[in-house]
Design brief:
Blueprint lengths: L5 E2 L7 H8 L4 E6 L9 H9 L6 E6 L6 H6 L4 E7 L9 E5 H4 L11 H12 L2 E7 L12 H21 L18
Helix pairs in contact: 1-6, 2-6
């Protein structure tokens, strides 16, 4: 991935093709986020929504991803996909697909360990490609509900991940017929 892309609407993204190209070999998906802090729960919620999908190891790390590093390493992944709320300085619900070199620009983090440090550690210790699906939060206040914009992005990202994982399991499958591509912008 050469450049960061940020889209205001997940439906207009080419996320499926980006993920399909990036998700190689054994894949671990780790959702990150505090379920008590509104939109910060986005990554955690995506992980819960795809936890029953075969063909990928899913971890709901909530707000302590550092506690799951050994579990990630034990899977001997070729690709790790992290999902987290990140202040992208864009519209709530916007999504960016970032590699580790692009994450340093997005500081501070709502977690104890910055996402860039977590990505660097995972890449160094597991010799794994580590990517981030970042979701722009509207608010991360304690005991607040998730915003509609972020909730919509969570649903869309979970759907895209399910489709990409399903296609990975099909022999010689090409292209995607996404339910997202048929949606009209609102």
């Amino acid at each position: 991935m050469g450049s960061t892309f940020i889209r205001a609407r997940v439906e207009s993204m080419n996320l499926q093709e980006e993920l399909a190209a990036a998700m190689q070999g054994t894949v671990v998906v780790m959702g990150i986020g505090n379920p008590c802090r509104g939109d910060d729960a986005a990554g955690s919620l995506v992980a819960r929504k795809i936890s029953d999908v075969p063909g990928v190891h899913v971890i709901d790390a909530q707000d302590v991803p550092e506690n799951y590093l050994c579990q990630v390493a034990d899977q001997r992944p070729d690709t790790v996909v992290l999902i987290d709320s990140v202040d992208l300085k864009s519209a709530p619900g916007s999504v960016a697909f970032l590699d580790k070199d692009q994450t340093a620009a997005y500081w501070p983090s709502t977690h104890r360990v910055p996402i860039s440090l977590l990505m660097n550690y995972l890449e160094r210790e597991t010799h794994t490609r580590v990517l981030l699906i970042a979701i722009q939060p509207r608010q991360t206040a304690f005991l607040q509900p998730m915003s509609a914009a972020v909730s919509s992005s969570v649903e869309a990202i979970a759907g895209v991940l399910k489709e990409v994982i399903a296609v990975r399991q099909m022999p010689a499958q090409t292209g995607f017929t996404s339910r997202l591509s048929s949606k009209e912008p609102s």
